[in-house]
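Example record for the data management plan.
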Amino acid sequence: MPDKPIIVLVRPQLGENIGKAARAMLNFGLTEMRLVAPRDGWPNPDAGPSAAGADAVIEGAQVFETTAEAVADCANIFATTVRKRGVAKPVVTPEEAARQWHSEPGKSAVLFGREASGLATEDVALARAILTVPINPEFGSLNLAQAVILCAYEWSKTQANAQTLAQPTLEDTLPPAPQSELDGLVEHLETMLEPTGYFYPANREEATRRTLRGVLTKPAWNELEIRTLRGVLSHLQRGPRPK
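Corresponding structural encoding:
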């Protein structure tokens, strides 16, 4: 499996933004950060709090004096910019770049420029391709962490990497309740409805019960939901509390 792409921040200005970029990286499984001549030096005390726990990325960050030195061992270099800056190079989206990072041998690196002005022309010249995203032509301003997370997310979507990430909302979903729990809910509601004449006339009773069961079965209630519904029915059976 190819190495994970290396995130290279070229002349970043604020330690806070470096920390936010580290956080974005680790959310999607990227861990190697390289810094080129950070304005305020390194380590930077403002980076840690902004990293929000991505300490391994911050602590492992390497510092270089020039962009050329930072990518000297990389075979696939991509420069993130919205402009070609007079350099004739292929232009790819993060999704297209991620496929190349995954399929091509050698280390890959993604260059991100300083917050105020982006990459210099000499930085872009080192890259094999320009990486950019389709964006609102009326407002094409991304901050550093946003740009990093777009690339990290596309990397995470490649087949080999997606297996190592978790979908929190899916993990938190409870499984459907056992059939016995659902039967108890149906019987509870039927018991409440019978004295009201709901199943009248008698020749439609069986069909009405089937329809009612179908309605209650369709949502695939989990056990917590069924207990809640039965609690509602029990409360209705008791009637209003005395004042």
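Summary line stored alongside the record: The chain has a mean pLDDT of 88.
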